[in-house]
Amino acid sequence: MTLNTQSPRRAEPLFDAKADAARAFEAVKNGGIAILPHTIGYAAMANSSDALQRIFKTKRRASGKLNAMIGNLEMHRQVHQCSTRGREIVEAITLDYNLPLGCIAPADMSHSLLAGMDADMLERSSKNGTVVMLMNAGECHAHLTKLSLAENVPLFGSSANVSLGGTKFKVEDIEPEIIEIADVVVDHGLQPFHPYAASSTLINVETLELQRKGSCYDDICYILDRHFGVQPV
Predict the structure, then answer these.
(1) What was the pLDDT predicted at 17?
(2) Global pTM?
(3) Per-residue DSSP letters for 39-75?
């Protein structure tokens, strides 16, 4: 068999992350729920208290579990109130090593992205003045966070699965009841960090308190040890 090495690349890529993020953002901005691909698994997200409650109830999530904010480095710099070391830790993980991170840090609750949250959203999305921000979780996530910051529309959510059902890295593995509550489902196939079978690692970058050991945990520990001489506690 002779291989054709001169064939041009197909005209269109398999996925259009920018367009998919835009239609998901419009649905969420208007009170809906979207399921989107992140490198650390599919997530369900919303902007309104009612939509977040629907996600929470459908997931059968335990009380006390928090939503994560979908954010990027610029949003982190504006919203999180970090020390120099805290910011350097975040940049080392997400920029220099290009890994995803569930970044926990004290937040400026007067920032316009947070100031408009009602009491229920605030209770479900913050704890003791800190906010969890999922950072650097893939191309669709990157486009979505740019829209969120540009239009001043905060997005919150959690993994698209029934609680204790395991993070889903393919849409076809997401439970039907989770799919049913979504106004938009973006299917970008199997997500890259599926070998970890876990969502993002959650670390308070100020106290180094580990909230969840997830994807890339060992890599993150390596970064913290090599470049900062510290480890999660």
Answers:
(1) 96
(2) 0.92
(3) TTEEEEEESSHHHHHHHHHHHTPPTT---EEE--HHH
